[in-house]
Design brief:
The protein has seven helices and nine strands; from the N terminus they run E-H-E-E-H-E-E-H-H-H-H-E-E-H-E-E. With 249 residues, it is α+β, with helices and mostly antiparallel strands. It has two domains: 77 residues, Ribosomal protein S6/Translation elongation factor EF1B (Alpha-Beta Plaits, 2-Layer Sandwich), CATH 3.30.70.60; 143 residues, Muramoyl-pentapeptide Carboxypeptidase, domain 2. A hairpin with a 7-residue loop joins strand 8 and strand 9. The radius of gyration is 19 Å and the shape is globular.
């Protein structure tokens, strides 16, 4: 378990703590302390959280892409490796570095979504344009947000009447057919294998965050209350034959 501090700004404070608290709990974290103040640019909410290390990044992305969040910052310690030199044992330990997680360009993604819906499934030109339009540090979070919103929209349009499914059945009956409209994809257990991904050209940057968000958006409402997580474990942009996505709860 590790602590992390997040700071969000929203247009209004009514119900903000309750809504974001649900997200925090969904990702296995607990709230240790909070501070909510009204500033000139909106309601500023600071949360001190504790939870599993392997869910911190997913929680940051979920909070940063939440529709009520205008800006998002995350502060968490970066572990400093132990030095092997015996002489270093007498040196004082360095002060932990704190890093800021970039947030999605929410406004630009929101403006793009109606066009993606109109042109669906021919969405990759819009996504490639998004990659170039946003700041480099906001690229991955913006792709994830676009994927999450698109996946949720596709689920509501095509699969909302489906019964609650196990994760395996949801991958086979929802994620697989939805992705096959966009790309060449197969599945093996809880993995999806995407061939020749248009967003992951060899030597370029990975576009896997879009597919992680798309898969999570597709499956979030189909498998019950537990959160769904998609993680890219292999990418065509880095020389792999396939882009591989592991899906878990």
């Amino acid at each position: 378990m590790a602590e992390m501090e997040v700071r969000v700004v929203s247009e209004r404070k009514d119900g903000l703590l309750v809504e974001l608290g649900r997200v925090v709990a969904q990702y296995g974290h607990v709230l240790l302390r909070q501070r909510l103040v009204q500033e000139a640019r909106g309601a500023c909410l600071t949360l001190l959280l504790s939870g599993p290390d392997d869910r911190q990044l997913a929680l940051e992305e979920a909070l940063g892409s939440h529709p009520r969040v205008l800006s998002f910052e995350s502060l968490r310690p970066v572990l400093v490796p132990l030095r092997e030199s015996a002489a270093s044992a007498t040196e004082p330990a360095p002060t932990p570095i704190r890093v800021m997680a970039a947030s999605a360009d929410v406004a630009r993604v929101e403006r793009m979504l109606p066009n993606m819906a109109k042109d669906y499934p021919r969405i990759f030109p819009w996504l490639i344009n998004l990659e170039y339009a946003v700041a480099e540090e906001a690229r991955d979070a913006s792709l994830y947000l676009a994927g999450r919103r698109t996946g949720s929209w596709v689920f509501k349009r095509d699969f909302a009447l489906s019964a609650r499914l196990s994760l395996s059945d949801a991958i086979r009956r929802i994620a697989l057919p939805a992705l096959r409209v966009l790309v060449n994809v197969d599945h093996e257990g809880h993995q999806l294998h995407v061939k020749a991904c248009p967003l992951c050209q060899p030597g370029g940057a990975s576009g896997g965050r879009f597919f992680c968000g798309f898969i999570e958006g597709l499956l979030a409402e189909s498998v019950g209350a537990r959160a769904v997580f998609a993680r890219e474990t292999s990418c065509h942009s880095q020389g792999a034959a396939l882009c591989v996505f592991d899906i878990s709860q």
